[in-house]
């Protein structure tokens, strides 16, 4: 892909920054890419693949359960915070109306 972008001739000067950006993104991706992904895929048995998928789903479940627990804790804390705020804004007793004096 990098070769294709390098060989691409931008149609106008306005497109040259796009070409530079695409090259930089592809080069950056190659620098960070693990060599294991650059070769042919590793052959695995159906059972190995099934185990891999199950582990992935189990990890997702763990992450979602953790996120849910955090969300519940945040909701409880937010509810408490708002409740305390509302209590602080309620007057302990109703203010007595000011009587108008006649002049």
How would you portray this structure in words?
The protein is mainly α and 103 residues long. It has 2 domains: 1-41; 43-87. 65% of the residues lie in helices and 0% in strands. It is built from 3 helices and no strands. It has helices at 2-7, 16-32, 46-89. The radius of gyration is 32 Å and the shape is flat. The model has no long low-confidence stretch (mean pLDDT 87).
Number of domains: 2
Strand content: under 5%
Q: Please provide the ordered H/E string of secondary-structure elements.
A: HHH
Number of H/I helices: 3
The Rg value, from CA coordinates, equals 32 Å
Based on secondary structure, the structural category is mainly alpha
Shape: flat
Largest sheet: none
Mean pLDDT across every amino acid position: 87
| Amino- and carboxy-terminal Cα gap | 91 Å
Indicate the low-confidence ranges by residue numbers: none
Number of strands: 0
Helical residues, percent: 55-70%
């Amino acid at each position: 892909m990098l070769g294709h972008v390098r060989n691409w001739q931008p149609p106008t000067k306005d497109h040259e920054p796009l070409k530079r950006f695409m090259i930089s993104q592809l080069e950056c991706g190659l620098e960070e890419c693990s060599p294991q992904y650059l070769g042919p895929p590793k052959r695995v048995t159906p059972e190995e693949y099934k185990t891999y998928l199950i582990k992935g789903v189990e990890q997702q479940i763990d992450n979602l359960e953790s996120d849910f627990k955090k969300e519940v804790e945040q909701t409880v804390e937010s509810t408490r915070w708002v409740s305390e705020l509302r209590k602080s804004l309620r007057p302990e007793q109703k203010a007595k109306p000011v009587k108008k004096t006649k002049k």
